[in-house]
Specification:
The complex is a heterodimer. The longest helix of chain A is centred in the middle third of the chain and has 14 residues, at 163-176. In chain A, helix 6 packs parallel to helix 7. Chain A is α/β, with parallel strands linked by helices. In chain A, 31% of the residues lie in helices and 23% in strands. By secondary structure, chain B is an alpha+beta fold. Chain B is built from 14 helices and 12 strands. Chain B has helices at residues 2-8, 105-159, 166-204, 236-252, 265-296, 301-313, 318-341, 343-347, 358-382, 386-394, 399-428, 431-436, 462-471, 476-512; strands spanning 15-20, 25-35, 42-47, 57-61, 65-69, 75-79, 85-93, 207-211, 217-221, 225-229, 255-256, 261-262. In chain B, the strands form 3 sheets. In chain B, strands 4-3-2-1-5 form a 5-stranded antiparallel β-sheet, with no helix packed on it. Chain B has a 5-stranded antiparallel β-sheet with strand order 9-8-7-6-10. In chain B, strands 11-12 form a two-stranded antiparallel sheet. In chain B, a hairpin with a 6-residue loop joins strand 2 and strand 3 (42-47). Classes of the chains: A alpha/beta, B alpha+beta.
C-alpha cells in the first residue's frame, strides 16, 4: 500500500504489511503487561530506518517507564509519538539523544541503533551524538544572549570561530526557521525581548544551525498560541525532506496534520505504529481506537 | 547621631571669653551644657586647649560665670603638638622671613606662615626626604644583608668549615664591604641631620607672640602652626572654606598627636586595601567552591558533610577566626615562610611573615566571608531553570562549556549579592584584625622601594582606629570628635563599596537574567 496522503512527499521506499509476528522478544517476556506490540498483526517494516530501537526498557529507580519498546524510525520523514500524558513518549524521545543521562537514578537496557552503532555504547561520544540528533523542548529556552549568539552557540562550542562561517550559518538557519525576516535588523539585540512563538522558532533555528540529521521535538507547540502553532507546523512540513523529525505531541489533530508516521504509546508500551492516515482512520488495536476517538486520554 | 556629630566636628565654633566670679578669665570653645541630676547644677564644658599649660577641657559651673563675651580678635591656632591654642596675637618676630608691614595683623600672620612653610619646603623638606631614603636603604638593604651574611657564616661554621676556608673568607669579605658601606651611610646621615638642624633652627626663629586669656604671653614658632582662624569674625564663606580644608586634611594626611588630630589617610588606605585583598582572595575561591559543590560533586556523605561545615562556618564568631588566623597563618604558614626565606630575621627577632601583617589579616577576613559566597553561588546556580541547561546540552555542549558560557553569567547577579553581603560584613569586623595585623600607628604599606606594595607590613584600619582612640587613648575627651568622624568615614566607605557592588550587580541582572514574557 502506498501512502497517498501527502503529495509533496515522494516515496523513497515501499513497504508491505507484515503477515506474521517477527518480534524478537519471546512471548514469555511480555506477560508483564496485557498491552503488547506483539499482538499487532501488521507492524510495518521500514526499509531504511535512521534509528532502530530494540527492546528498550527504562527504569526510574524501581519503576519501569518504558517496557520493551521495539520500533524503527523512518528516514527523512516525520514520525509522531502520541499517547496520553505521562505514558513515556517524552522519555522515549529523550533516550534517542541520551538526554536521560542527565537524570540521576535512570537505567536503560536494550539497544538503540543510530547509524549502525548502539548509542549507549561506552565508545560513543555523547557530544557528537547530540550534535547529530538535535532537540527542541516544550518550553522555549533562549539563552540570555543576542539572537546571533543564540543561533551561533552550537557552532561556537563545536570550535568554529570564523566570523564569515558563523554569519552564513546564522542566516541560513534563521531563514530555514522562517524567522529571518523578523529579526534580520535586530540580530544583535537580546533574544529575551521576543514573543513565545519567535522564541520557539529561534530554538529551532539554534538546533538546525549545527546541521543535525534528526530533530527531536518534545511538544514544541503546547506552550504557544494557535497562530504560532500553525507557523511551526508549516515549518515542520518544510524541514521534513532534509531532516528526520520525531515529534511528541498529545494533540492528535496536530499529529494528523503534521506527521507521516505515528506511534501510539500507552503506559510505556508501544501499542501500534503505522502510517498516520491509516492509524487514524483504520487503527488495528482497540486501545488505539479508544484513544483516537477520545474514550480515554 | 553619627552623621550630626561627625559632620559638625569641623565646623568652626565660636570662641568665648568668659570672666569668672573670681576674676579669672578663660578663652575657649563652648562644647556642651549639662545639668547634674543630683544637685541640679548646670555646668558648661569648655575646650581651652593649650595642653602644655593645664587640662585642655574644663567644666565650669554656670553660676560662677560673671560675663561672656565673644572677642572679635580671638585666634584659634591648630598646632602640630599640644593641641589648639586660644589667644590674642600680640606681635610677629620674623628675622628670616620678609613680609610687608601693611595689611591687618591676620594677613601678616598668614603671609608669615606661608613664607615659613615655603622656606621649610624648599630648604628642609628635600634634605629630610634624602635622609629618609638613606635610612630606608640602611635598614632594608644593608642591615638585612649583614644579618643574612652573619647567618650564613654561622651555618657554614656549624656545618664544619674552619675559619679559614674559602667560603667563610668570601663571606667575611662581603661582610667587611657591607660594614664599610654602613659606616659611610651613617656618616652621611649624620651630616644630613646636622644640616637639617641648622635649617630648622633658622626657620624656627620666626615666631609669633600670643597672649592667652589671662594675659600670659607665649612665643609660638610659625612652623608649628598648621592653621589658624578667627572664628568670631569669619563669614559663612570663610567658614565653609575652613570646613572643606579640614575635610581634605582628614582624608589625605597622616594623623598627629597620637591620633587625636590630623588626617586618617593611612587608616583609609589600609581599610580599602584590606577589603580589596580580601575580595581578591575570597571571591574566586568561594565561587569555584560553590560551582564545584553545586555542579560537579556527586551527592554523598562527604559532600553533605562539606555543606554542613560551610553553613556552620558562616555563624562562627569573628574572634575565633582571628585566633585561627594567628595560629595558622601567622605562626604556621608565616613561620615556615620565614624559616625558608628569611631565617636570619628570625634570629634577629624581626620576623617577616611570622607576625601580623596586612596579607594575613586579609586572608583571615577572606575566610570569614567565603561561606557566604559559596552558599550564594550554589543557590544562584540552582535557581537557573533546568530548561536552559538542557537546551545547552542538547546542542552538544559539555558541562564545562555550559557552565562558563551560560550558567555562570546567568548566576552572576546572585553571586554578586553574596559577595556584597560578605564584603559589608568583613569591612566592619575589627576583632580578627586586632590579632592579625592592625596597629595603632603605621605608615601606608606602599612606597617607592620594591616590591612597592609591602604585604608583610602592619597597617592601620578605620575600625581598629575607632577602638583605639575611644578606649585606649590617653586623652579620651580630645579624641571624642575624632571617634565620630572616623565612624562616619567608615560607614561612608562601606556604603560606597557596597553601592559599587550593587551597581555592578544590577548591570549584570539586566544583561543576563531571562525575563518571562
Amino acid at each position: 500500500m502506498l501512502k497517498t496522503s501527502d503529495t509533496k512527499h515522494t516515496m523513497k521506499h515501499a513497504f508491505r504489511p507484515k503477515a506474521q509476528n517477527n518480534e524478537e522478544v519471546p512471548p514469555a517476556a511480555n506477560d508483564v503487561s496485557k498491552h503488547t506490540a506483539n499482538e499487532s498483526p501488521s507492524a510495518p517494516v521500514i526499509a531504511d530506518p535512521i534509528v532502530r530501537a530494540e527492546q528498550v526498557r527504562l527504569y526510574y529507580g524501581k519503576s519501569e517507564a518504558l517496557k520493551d519498546i521495539t520500533m524503527d524510525f523512518p528516514r527523512h520523514e516525520v514520525t509522531a509519538l502520541i499517547g496520553p500524558s505521562g505514558c513515556g513518549k517524552s522519555t522515549l524521545l529523550r533516550c534517542l539523544n541520551r538526554m536521560n543521562d542527565l537524570i540521576d537514578d535512570v537505567r536503560t537496557t536494550g539497544r538503540i541503533e543510530f547509524d549502525g552503532q548502539d548509542i549507549n555504547d561506552k565508545a560513543v561520544d555523547v557530544i557528537e551524538l547530540r550534535r547529530r540528533v538535535g532537540m527542541v523542548f516544550q518550553k522555549p529556552t533562549p539563552f540570555p544572549k543576542s539572537i546571533y549568539e543564540n543561533v551561533a552557540y552550537g557552532l561556537r562550542i563545536a570550535g568554529i570561530r570564523q566570523r564569515h562561517i558563523l554569519d552564513e550559518v546564522v542566516e541560513k538557519s534563521l531563514r530555514r526557521a522562517a524567522l529571518w525576516d523578523e529579526v534580520k535588523d535586530r540580530l544583535h539585540e537580546s533574544a529575551l525581548g521576543f514573543s513565545g512563538g519567535q522564541h520557539q522558532r529561534l530554538c529551532i533555528a539554534r538546533a538546525i544551525a549545527v546541521n543535525p540529521e534528526i530533530i527531536l521535538m518534545d511538544e514544541p507547540c503546547s506552550a504557544l498560541d494557535p497562530r504560532s502553532t500553525t507557523r511551526i507546523e508549516d515549518l515542520i512540513g518544510q524541514l521534513r525532506g532534509e531532516y528526520t523529525i520525531i515529534i511528541v505531541t498529545h494533540n492528535m489533530q496536530q499529529a494528523a496534520r503534521v506527521s507521516d508516521w505515528a506511534a501510539f504509546i500507552y503506559e510505556g508500551v508501544l501499542i501500534e505504529f503505522g502510517i498516520t492516515s491509516k492509524l487514524f482512520t483504520k487503527p488495528e488495536r482497540k486501545e488505539t481506537e479508544d484513544y483516537i476517538t477520545g474514550r480515554f486520554g | 547621631m553619627v552623621l550630626w556629630n561627625g559632620l559638625g566636628v569641623f565646623w568652626p565654633h565660636a570662641v568665648a571669653e568668659v570672666e569668672l566670679a573670681d576674676l579669672k578669665k578663660l578663652l575657649g570653645e563652648e562644647l556642651q551644657t549639662e545639668i547634674n541630676p543630683d544637685t541640679g547644677v548646670e555646668s558648661i564644658k569648655f575646650k581651652v586647649g593649650n595642653m602644655e599649660d593645664g587640662p585642655a577641657f574644663r567644666w565650669i559651673e554656670s553660676s560662677t560665670i560673671h560675663s561672656t563675651t565673644y572677642p572679635q580678635d580671638a585666634y584659634v591656632l591648630e598646632r602640630i603638638t599640644n593641641m589648639n591654642y586660644y589667644g590674642f596675637l600680640r606681635k610677629l618676630v620674623t628675622p628670616s622671613a620678609t613680609i610687608s608691614n601693611d595689611g591687618s595683623m591676620q594677613k601678616q600672620l598668614a603671609a608669615a606662615i606661608a613664607d615659613t612653610k615655603m622656606k621649610f619646603a624648599r630648604e628642609v623638606a628635600p634634605i629630610q626626604a634624602k635622609q629618609a631614603a638613606l635610612a630606608n636603604e640602611l635598614k632594608n638593604h644593608v642591615k638585612y644583608a649583614i644579618l643574612r651574611i652573619n647567618y650564613q657564616r654561622k651555618q657554614l661554621l656549624a656545618a664544619g668549615h674552619s675559619n679559614d676556608s674559602e667560603e667563610v673568607n668570601r663571606l667575611a669579605q662581603q661582610l667587611a664591604e657591607l660594614q664599610a658601606k654602613e659606616e659611610r651611610l651613617k656618616k652621611e646621615s649624620d651630616q644630613l641631620t646636622a644640616e637639617i638642624d641648622k635649617h630648622e633652627a633658622a626657620v624656627r626663629a620666626n615666631v609669633a607672640i600670643f597672649a592667652d586669656a589671662s594675659g600670659r604671653e607665649k612665643s609660638i614658632a610659625l612652623s608649628d602652626i598648621v592653621r589658624f582662624y578667627c572664628p568670631n569674625q569669619m563669614s559663612i564663606g570663610s567658614m565653609l572654606a575652613h570646613y572643606c580644608a579640614k575635610i581634605w586634611e582628614l582624608l589625605a594626611t597622616n594623623p598627629r598627636e597620637s591620633n587625636q588630630d590630623g588626617g586618617l589617610f593611612p587608616a583609609i588606605f589600609g581599610t580599602v586595601l584590606m577589603v580589596f585583598l580580601m575580595a581578591a582572595t575570597c571571591f574566586p575561591l568561594g565561587v569555584l567552591a560553590g560551582i564545584y559543590l553545586g555542579e560537579y560533586a556527586k551527592e554523598g556523605f562527604l559532600v553533605r558533610l562539606v555543606r554542613i561545615a560551610v553553613n556552620n562556618l558562616a555563624g562562627i564568631p569573628s574572634i575565633v577566626y582571628g585566633i585561627f588566623g594567628l595560629g595558622f597563618f601567622i605562626y604556621l604558614v608565616g613561620g615556615h615562610l620565614d624559616h625558608w626565606f628569611f631565617p636570619e630575621r628570625i634570629d634577629a627577632g624581626e620576623p617577616v611573615f611570622g607576625q601580623g601583617c596586612i596579607i594575613w589579616a586579609s586572608l583571615t577576613l577572606g575566610l570569614l566571608t567565603i561561606p557566604v559566597v559559596i552558599v550564594s553561588t550554589e543557590e544562584a546556580l540552582r535557581a537557573i531553570p533546568r530548561g536552559i541547561r538542557e537546551g545547552s546540552y542538547a546542542l552538544g555542549s559539555t558541562k564545562f562549556q555550559t557552565l562558563v558560557r551560560i550558567l555562570v553569567p546567568m548566576a552572576s547577579p546572585g553571586m554578586m549579592t553574596g559577595f556584597i553581603l560578605a564584603m559589608a560584613r568583613a569591612a566592619g569586623e575589627v576583632a580578627p584584625l586586632m590579632i592579625t595585623g592592625a596597629v595603632k600607628n603605621a605608615p601606608v604599606p606602599f612606597d617607592g622601594s620594591f616590591p612597592y606594595l609591602h604585604l608583610d607590613r602592619q597597617f592601620m584600619h578605620l575600625g581598629f582606629h575607632i577602638l583605639d582612640i575611644s578606649c585606649k587613648s590617653p586623652n579620651v575627651e580630645a579624641t571624642k570628635p575624632m571617634v565620630y568622624v572616623t565612624t562616619l568615614l567608615l560607614l561612608l566607605i562601606v556604603l560606597s563599596l557596597s553601592s559599587f557592588a550593587i551597581y555592578l550587580r544590577n548591570r549584570m541582572r539586566t544583561r543576563f537574567q531571562s525575563r518571562t514574557i
